Amino acid sequence: MPFEALQDELDTRATQGLLRYRHELQSAQGTRVKVNGKPFLSFSSNDYLGLADHPQLLAALQTGTQQYGLGAGASHLVSGHFSAHEELEQALAEFVDKPAALLFSSGYLANLGAVQALVGRRDKIFADKLNHASLNDAMLLSRAQVQRYRHNDMAHLAQSLAQPHSGRKLVITDAVFSMDGDLALLPELLALCVQYDAWLLVDDAHGFGILGEHGRGSLFHHRDLSDLASPRIIYMATLGKAAGVSGAFIAAEQVVIDTLVQNARSYIYTTASPPALSCAVLASLRLFQKEEWRRTQLWKLVSQLRAGLIGLPWALMHSDTPIQPLLVGNNNVAVALSEALRTRGIWVPAIRPPTVPQGTARLRISLSAAHSEQDVAQLISALHELAH
Ligand SMILES: *Cc1c(COP(=O)(O)O)cnc(C)c1O
């Protein structure tokens, strides 16, 4: 039995209520999904605008495959860089108002590549404690010194930045915290970066497509837009959430992008994503701009949900985004609630440590523009029933 120790670890996880399971979808992603042959009303995806199954994206993908085929066949620097990638990079840079952009196959890879390419052993990273796992892994891979600051605690960050340091300084943050739904204090973060001459990497996986005019993202969410038009900001966003497809990009000054092309190992040593996917993302960008109603609908549903869940024994966390976590605390209670909803035909995932801190297990309700008011009403009444 060479793997006895592994089985022991799995058994321990199971008794702690921490074993993770995968559920098999037999339909497209959306508010109605089929899982194990049964239909569910789902509040579990990051497809916030309901674009993952949109006919215009599917059509763009099909046209893209007619022109470019399917596989990219090589990495970008060998022979896998297509016109569709190039066109999308330009469109993304323009959309988020940065001089240049670079596509990656996923957000995880974009974070690994950017951080590793920009800082090293002699440098220092300052990171919010609730940052996404991909940013945490990126810091380790970069071998830079790491100082984590308490969530959104600007005084704590200022204290760390004030310590003398001769190397580069990079502050890293989620723009919308993925398991909490709250926002980073971007104007304050930028001001500190200016004061202490640090760079600012903003991971906008959950803000892109959602916040700001036309869904241009978190940099456009703040009242005084010129505030966040700083060359110091290195902007990252993913294309598999609100954009409904797959992949990610970094947008920044040209010199930053040029550096990534030369140094980012997760860009260089991996096959380029299928070019037709870029065609589909271009279609999402058009819908971001054309269909403002999707965001309007989202905000309406967020208010409806928050008002409807008042009085439950569990509190909604503070969030103005489509991520609306219901804080349960205990791992097993969170799982039991999630399962009880499932028997009622509603799918809301339980999120447990280590994805979130110990003692803060939660139901992560995520809303989509494709939900109706009746869908949200159904979730509200199911949760009130379960509370009794
Ligand atoms: C989802 C997510 C990522 C990873 O993006 P993928 O494209 O799914 O690899 C990175 N950062 C944050 C904050 C995320 O939520």
Short structural description:
Helix content is 40%, strand content 17%.
Please, could you describe this protein's structure?
With 388 residues, this protein is an alpha/beta fold. Helix content is 40%, strand content 17%. The chain contains 13 helices and 14 strands. The protein has helices at 4-15, 55-68, 83-95, 107-118, 133-142, 154-162, 186-195, 254-263, 265-268, 275-290, 293-308, 331-343, 373-387, and strands spanning 32-35, 38-42, 100-104, 124-128, 145-149, 169-174, 199-203, 233-238, 248-252, 315-316, 323-329, 346-347, 350-351, 361-366. It has a 7-stranded mixed sheet, sandwiched between helices. It has a 4-stranded antiparallel sheet with strand order 10-11-14-13. It is globular. Bound molecules: pyridoxal-5'-phosphate.
Relevant terms:
388 residues, alpha/beta, Aspartate Aminotransferase, domain 2, 2 domains, 7-stranded mixed sheet, 4-stranded antiparallel sheet
Which regions are unreliable across 5 or more consecutive residues at pLDDT < 50?
none
Q: Architecture of the largest domain, CATH level 2?
A: 3-Layer(aba) Sandwich
Largest sheet: 7 strands, mixed
CA-atom Rg in angstroms: 21 Å
Record field, number of beta strands: 14
Span from first to last CA? 48 Å
Report the mean per-residue pLDDT as an integer: 96
Q: Helical segment tally? A: 13
Give me the CATH fold name of the largest domain. Aspartate Aminotransferase, domain 2
Output the strand order for the largest sheet: 3-9-8-7-6-4-5
CATH class of the largest domain: Alpha Beta
Shape, principal axes of CA atoms: globular
Ligands bound, unique? pyridoxal-5'-phosphate
Beta-strand proportion = 15-25%
Q: What is the domain total for the residues?
A: 2
The CATH H-level superfamily of the largest domain is Type I PLP-dependent aspartate aminotransferase-like (Major domain)
Structural class: alpha/beta
Helix content: 25-40%
Q: What's the SSE pattern?
A: HEEHHEHEHEHEHEEEHHHHEEHEEEH
